[in-house]
């Protein structure tokens, strides 16, 4: 009889305090979720602009036999696509070379180094971006240049303006220290592309350098 009464009392307490338990649980859940999000442990959904699907037939069918087209128009790059390693990222074009300005631009995409060549212009265009291999990355732009060290000689790199796609072909991939990564930005007669990945443009850390030569430009397939 005592056991029965004890069970009844326990049930009565649970019923009486169920809303308090539920309220405490919900508060604890939302506080925990907010803290995890603040420190970057809640994955962010990838922007629909990032299309990591297989490239279209028009993109993969471009070969050295296709007629190269250079319009003579100088344009800013707005997107870089590297089909072989699944890179598809926006390109930012800041004016200032201030390190703080460049670091801020890196938070929203790949960056063209101010003063390096633009699309349709002779010389070397330098694009740099973050790489991160952490299991959870809240800002996907920290992974903008993941895997460029895996590129092989002959791989395509596609850089888009608003209306044209400029095709480059990889000529070399190397690992170097920032203090030794001297990149020639002289505007000579050739058109080429250099990719660099680092966590902060001003840091003295190891980085990968990819160099590519211009092949031709083509209208972006609609």
TrEMBL record:
Keyword Chaperone present in the record's keywords: the answer is: no
Q: Which InterPro entries match?
A: Sortase (IPR005754), Sortase_dom-sf (IPR023365)
Q: Which UniProt keywords apply?
A: Hydrolase, Membrane, Transmembrane, Transmembrane helix
Q: Name one GO molecular function term.
A: hydrolase activity
Q: Please tell me whether the keyword Metal-binding is annotated for this protein.
A: no
Looking up Pfam families in the UniProt record yields: Sortase
Query: Which spans are transmembrane here?
Result: 21-42
Its name, as the record gives it, is Sortase
Name the source organism. Answer: Candidatus Kaiserbacteria bacterium CG10_big_fil_rev_8_21_14_0_10_49_17
